[in-house]
C-alpha cells in the first residue's frame, strides 16, 4: 500500500486571539499614539490578523510604525513563496498605523487606496522582515503614507503608498 502523499505532508497550526470589540471601544477614546503604544505594551488586544499572520508590532513613533514577520510555510502561495496578500497586509498595517500614530482621540480612519510593488519573493529562508510605514501628509480628511518591506540587512522586498480617509468616531 502506497501512503497518501498529502497525509504525509499535512501540518497543523493553532493560535488564539483576544476579543476585538475591546480594542475597538478603547481605541475610539485614545489618541492614535496612546492606543498603539498601549497595544505594543500588551494593555490592549492586538488585531486578530496579527495573530493569524504571526505579525509583531516592533516600534511606534509619531508618523512611523514598524511591523515584523518571519516568513513561514503557512504564509506560502501554491508556488512556494510568501503570498502577495501577506505583503499587502503587512504594508497596509504599517502605513495605516503610521497615519494612526498622529491622530487625536476620537478620529478614525480607513484605507481608501493601497498601491504595492513586490520586487522580490519572501521565503522561509529570508529571515525576519520589517514593514516600515512613514507618514507623508495628514490633512483634515485625507492622509497619505509610504512604506517598504526590508530584511534585517536593508534589502528591499516591496514598497507601497496609501491614502486613508479620516473621520470622527461616533
CATH architecture: Roll
Pairing-aware structural class of the strands and helices?
A: alpha+beta
What gyration radius follows from the Cα positions, in whole Å? 17 Å
Helix content: 25-40%
Reported for the largest beta sheet, the result is: 6 strands, antiparallel
User: For the terminal residues, how far apart are their CA atoms?
Assistant: 64 Å
Q: Give the topology string: H per helix, E per strand.
A: HHHHEEHEEEE
**The CATH topology is what?**
Thiol Ester Dehydrase, Chain A
Q: In CATH's first tier, which class applies?
A: Alpha Beta
> Would you identify the CATH H-level superfamily?
Hotdog Thioesterase
Query: How many β-strands, per DSSP?
Result: 6
- How many DSSP helices? 5
What is the strand arrangement across the widest sheet? 1-2-4-5-6-3
Mean pLDDT: 95
What does this structure look like?
The chain has one domain (18-168): Thiol Ester Dehydrase, Chain A (Roll). The chain is built from five helices and six strands, in the order H-H-H-H-E-E-H-E-E-E-E. The chain has helices at 5-9, 20-27, 32-40, 48-53, 84-100; strands at 56-61, 64-69, 107-118, 129-138, 142-151, 156-168. Strands 1-2-4-5-6-3 form a six-stranded antiparallel sheet. It is globular. The N and C termini lie far apart (64 Å). It comes from Spirosoma aureum.
Amino acid at each position: 500500500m502506497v501512503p497518501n502523499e498529502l497525509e504525509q505532508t499535512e501540518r497543523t497550526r493553532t493560535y488564539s486571539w483576544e476579543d476585538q470589540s475591546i480594542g475597538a471601544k478603547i481605541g475610539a477614546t485614545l489618541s492614535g499614539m496612546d492606543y498603539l503604544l498601549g497595544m505594543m505594551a500588551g494593555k490592549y488586544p492586538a488585531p486578530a490578523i496579527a495573530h493569524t499572520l504571526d505579525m509583531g508590532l516592533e516600534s511606534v513613533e509619531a508618523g512611523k510604525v514598524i511591523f515584523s514577520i518571519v516568513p513561514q510555510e503557512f504564509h506560502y502561495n501554491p508556488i512556494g513563496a510568501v503570498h502577495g496578500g501577506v505583503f499587502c497586509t503587512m504594508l497596509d498595517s504599517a502605513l495605516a498605523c503610521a497615519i494612526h500614530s498622529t491622530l487625536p482621540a476620537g478620529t478614525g480612519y480607513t484605507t481608501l487606496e493601497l498601491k504595492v510593488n513586490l520586487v522580490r519573493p519572501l521565503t522561509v529562508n529570508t529571515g525576519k522582515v520589517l514593514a516600515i510605514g512613514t507618514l507623508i501628509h495628514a490633512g483634515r480628511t485625507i492622509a497619505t503614507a509610504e512604506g517598504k518591506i526590508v530584511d534585517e540587512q536593508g534589502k528591499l522586498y516591496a514598497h507601497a503608498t496609501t491614502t486613508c480617509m479620516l473621520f470622527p468616531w461616533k
